[in-house]
Amino acid sequence: MAPVQRMSTTMLKTLRDDPADAETASHKLLVRAGYVRRTSAGVWTWLPMGKKVLENVSRVVREEMDAIGGQEVLLPALLPKEPYETSGRWEEYGDLLFRLKDRKGAEYLLGPTHEEIFTLTVKDQCTSYKDLPVMLYQIQTKYRDEARPRSGVLRGREFQMKDSYSFDTTDEGLAESYRLHREAYTRIFERLGLDYRVVSAVSGAMGGSASEEFLAPAAAGEDTFVDCPACDYAANTEAVTAVVAPADAAEHGPVEELDTPDTPTIESLAEHLGVPASATLKNLLVKIDGEITAIGVPGDREVDLGKLGEHLAPAVVELVTAEDFAGRPDLVRGYVGPQGLKLRYLADPRVAPGTAWVTGANKPDTHARNVVCGRDFEVDQYLDVVVVEQGDPCPRCGAGLEIGRAIEIGHIFQLGRKYADAFGLDVLGPQGKPVRVTMGSYGIGVSRAVAALAEQTHDASGLCWPREVAPADVHVVAAGKALQTELALELAEKLGAAGVRVLVDDRAGVSPGVKFTDAELIGVPTILVVGRGAASGVVELKDRRTGEREELTVAEAVERLTARV
Ligand code: ATP
Ligand code: MG
């Protein structure tokens, strides 16, 4: 038994025009179809239709989390500052954190994610190894003061997240909790009807080891990922590792200085010498926590500053300025080379031992040839920080990688003991000695998943929901006449009684054209039109996705639609 939802009494106002500031399809369509309403920048109201979709996503997430033994809890969003000071994130989060004070001046934050509070909860509730493993989750409102909340509910400053945390006493236990989550996520995204990839990710500020992201390919996505067309390798571009061919230092002649006036750029140098840019070594100078450091990458590659920041976090990375050169005559702008350089030297893995390069000679207007890594200079640390390019070799099989854009819909981490160490989370082990707990943390963007689904499934006429998340199973459209409305309502009641979720457009004084356009925009998977044929008991069934239409008798339509329940 499902109550029939009548459009004549539903608070649902569709709009003809896109909101002025909307850039993504999900933003435009969710607003136009009356699912969400902007309250302030990055803060959204879920209207009746939107709330249904959000609830459907939550239900699927909840069912699958329960199925792997997750226990649902609800933590506050308003959190005291102290635990976040203990973990260091009160500082690390910087401007992303919403901070506030109570009337007594005590400091609080609005939770961006809850590792700290879950750790404290388990510390309080679990004392013995027998109390573990435990998996806790919540579907809750999160707050992050995002820099550019422009894409509707895709990136909110207030948003719904499912976050879960696993607590184990052994590494094997953590691996198992992680595996269970990975499988639950696979089932969740499949049931939601999302097209997704699981990719390896850098864990960044979270610390810890294994980490994978669930990405939904979509042009509106803010993440880039690589996909191998030949094997199952897929990774966030930030996590791709370079493939390096071994080289032999003995092949190369001695270092040779070259007079290269007016060649401060790689292009001008490559042209002057008649060598490819890939044979030159470019040395970018940055400041890492204030210390000037050089990073060597092949001349044809760009350094990804975001990736560099991720790798070196929490150190602060800045570009050098003209003042930084002032006190350093040894640093010759545009002609820096790693040989004899008195700086820490980081390099791309392509700058492998034995490879020879054309690079700066640390003298004005001069470059050097046959500068060999491991012979003429040493690399202090290798870092994968160049921008990945279409066609770069797959680290697993060597085929040319493809680059795509995607929306991050989920993220799973093996955190390890980082938070347990910070908060001293131990339980009494089988031998009576305390054992440090190891943790996993797992997130799904519940409200973001609604937007991701809209991005992936919409068409030119509007939204087009997969059945599991749709706000209704059938949208019955009464074309206009009183008799048609009567039959439509009768049909809707019959379907509702059989458990079919029905939205019925029984609005008086709205033209059939507007009703059809609205039905397409709203995106319920099946549209049932009660129109001209109604007098003779014939209705039209339309598949929203394929556009296929079929005329059926009322009895046939009821049978067809109830068979699916
Ligand atoms: P992003 O890189 O997109 O900012 P994140 O990596 O910071 O996301 P996590 O901390 O991994 O996000 O959060 C878990 C999940 O919560 C993400 O995978 C994403 O689906 C969702 N999420 C994160 N930030 C937002 C946001 N501002 N609006 C909506 N959903 C979000
Ligand atoms: Mg993430």
Task: Write a brief caption for the model.
This protein is of the alpha+beta class and 565 residues long. It folds into three domains: 45-219 and 404-455, Bira Bifunctional Protein, Domain 2 (BirA Bifunctional Protein, domain 2), CATH 3.30.930.10; 249-382, YbaK/aminoacyl-tRNA synthetase-associated domain (YbaK protein, Alpha-Beta Complex); 463-562, Anticodon-binding domain (Rossmann fold).
Could you please describe the fold and organization of this structure?
It is a single chain. By secondary structure, this protein is α+β, with helices and mostly antiparallel strands. The protein folds into three domains: 227 residues, BirA Bifunctional Protein, domain 2, CATH 3.30.930.10; 134 residues, Alpha-Beta Complex (YbaK protein); 100 residues, Rossmann fold (3-Layer(aba) Sandwich), CATH 3.40.50.800. The protein is 26% helix and 29% strand. The protein contains 14 helices and 30 strands. Strands 4, 8, 9, 10, 11, 12, 13, 22 and 25 form a nine-stranded mixed beta sheet that branches. It has a six-stranded mixed beta sheet with strand order 1-27-26-28-29-30, sandwiched between helices. Strands 17-15-16-18-21 form a five-stranded mixed beta sheet, covered by helices on one side. Helix 1 crosses helix 11. It is globular. Bound molecules: adenosine-5'-triphosphate and magnesium ion. Adenosine-5'-triphosphate (ATP) binds next to strand 9, strand 22, strand 25 and helix 11. Belongs to the class-II aminoacyl-tRNA synthetase family. ProS type 1 subfamily. InterPro entries: aa-tRNA-synt_IIb, aa-tRNA-synth_II, aa-tRNA-synth_II/BPL/LPL, Anticodon-bd, Anticodon-bd_dom_sf, Pro-tRNA-ligase_IIa, Pro-tRNA-synth_IIa_bac-type, Pro-tRNA-Synthase_IIa_type1. One of its GO terms (molecular function) is aminoacyl-tRNA deacylase activity.
